[in-house]
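Project outcomes to date are best conveyed with an example. Our students and postdoctoral researchers have been running inverse folding experiments weekly, and each run begins with a structure described purely in C-alpha cells. The record below, which covers 270 residues, was selected by the lab manager from last quarter's runs and is presented without edits.
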C-alpha cells in the first residue's frame, strides 16, 4: 500500500482508494508521487480490465493538502510547483492508459479532486456528493487538466461560469451539465463504478483505446490530420483478434465474446 492510497483488486479491476479520510483525502507530495507511480506501473498490465478511483470516508478528494503546502520551506509557489509536477503525471497516465478509468465520486470532489474526477473516462456520482473547482475562490488558477476537461465536457461558456463563480455543483446539476455519467444513491458509487468497468472490459478494449485517443486528440488537430489518424487507427484495430471476433459475430448474428486479457497496445492511432 502506498502512503495514503490502498489498492484492492475486484476480480480484474484495480480499485484505487484515496485513504486519508481525516484530511478529506487531500494529497501531499509523497502521496501523489505514489499514486502516479502506481498508475504508471499498471498502464501496460494486459490482465487489467480497468481502474476505479474513489475515496475513503465522506470525501472523494479535496485536492492538494493545504497544511503540507503551507508548511513547505520554499513557500506557496514552490510547493504548488512541486506538487503539480507529480499530480500532472498522474493525470497524463489516466488520459493515456488504454483501459477505462472510472471515478466513483462518493463525496466532496474539490480543487485537485475536481480535476482528477474530470480526467477520468467516466464518473459515477452519489446523491449528496458535491463538485467544486475551489481554486479561484482561493486566489488560484485551475490545474490538473481542469481547464482542458471543462470546456470539452460542458462548453466554453459553462466552463467560464464554473471557473469564475465557483458555485457548488450537486449531483443532479452535474448530470444535467454533462459533468458526470450517472447519479446513484449514497453508498452505491463504488459498486456501480466497478460494474461499469467490468462491462466495458467485456467489449473490445482495442476499440476503446483507439476511441479514447482519437476523441481526446480531435480538439487539437485539423480535419485532415484527424481523418488520417482515424484511417490509421481503423486499419490497426482491424488487425486485432477483437475485430475478427466482432465482425464474425455480426455476420453470424450473435453477440461477440472478446474474453479477458485483451492486448491493446497494437491498436494505435498516431
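After processing, the design step wrote out the following sequence:
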Amino acid at each position: 500500500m502506498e502512503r495514503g492510497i490502498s489498492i484492492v483488486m475486484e476480480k480484474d479491476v484495480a480499485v484505487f482508494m484515496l485513504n486519508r479520510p481525516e484530511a478529506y483525502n487531500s494529497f501531499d507530495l509523497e502521496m501523489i508521487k505514489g499514486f502516479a507511480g502506481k498508475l504508471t506501473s499498471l498502464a501496460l498490465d494486459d490482465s487489467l480490465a480497468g481502474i476505479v478511483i474513489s475515496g475513503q470516508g465522506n470525501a472523494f478528494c479535496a485536492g492538494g493538502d493545504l497544511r503540507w503546502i503551507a508548511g513547505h520551506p520554499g513557500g506557496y509557489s514552490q510547493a504548488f510547483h512541486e506538487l503539480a509536477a507529480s499530480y500532472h503525471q498522474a493525470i497524463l497516465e489516466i488520459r493515456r492508459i488504454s483501459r477505462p478509468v472510472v471515478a466513483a465520486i462518493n463525496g466532496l470532489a474539490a480543487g485537485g479532486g475536481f480535476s482528477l474526477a474530470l480526467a477520468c473516462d467516466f464518473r459515477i456520482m452519489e446523491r449528496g456528493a458535491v463538485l467544486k473547482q475551489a481554486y479561484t475562490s482561493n486566489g488560484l488558477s485551475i490545474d490538473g487538466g481542469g481547464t482542458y476537461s471543462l470546456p470539452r465536457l460542458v462548453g466554453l461558456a459553462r466552463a467560464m461560469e464554473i471557473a469564475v463563480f465557483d458555485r457548488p455543483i450537486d449531483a443532479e446539476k452535474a448530470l444535467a451539465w454533462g459533468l458526470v455519467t450517472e447519479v446513484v444513491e449514497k453508498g452505491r458509487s463504488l459498486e456501480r463504478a466497478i460494474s461499469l468497468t467490468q462491462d466495458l472490459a467485456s467489449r473490445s478494449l482495442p476499440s476503446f483505446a483507439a476511441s479514447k485517443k482519437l476523441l481526446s486528440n480531435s480538439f487539437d488537430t485539423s480535419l485532415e490530420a484527424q481523418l488520417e489518424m482515424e484511417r490509421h487507427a481503423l486499419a490497426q484495430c482491424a488487425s486485432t483478434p477483437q475485430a475478427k471476433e466482432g465482425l464474425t459475430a455480426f455476420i453470424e448474428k450473435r453477440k461477440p465474446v472478446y474474453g479477458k486479457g485483451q492486448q491493446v497496445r497494437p491498436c494505435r492511432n498516431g
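The first strand starts at residue 5 and ends at 10. The longest helix spans residues 75-96. The training component of this project remains on track.
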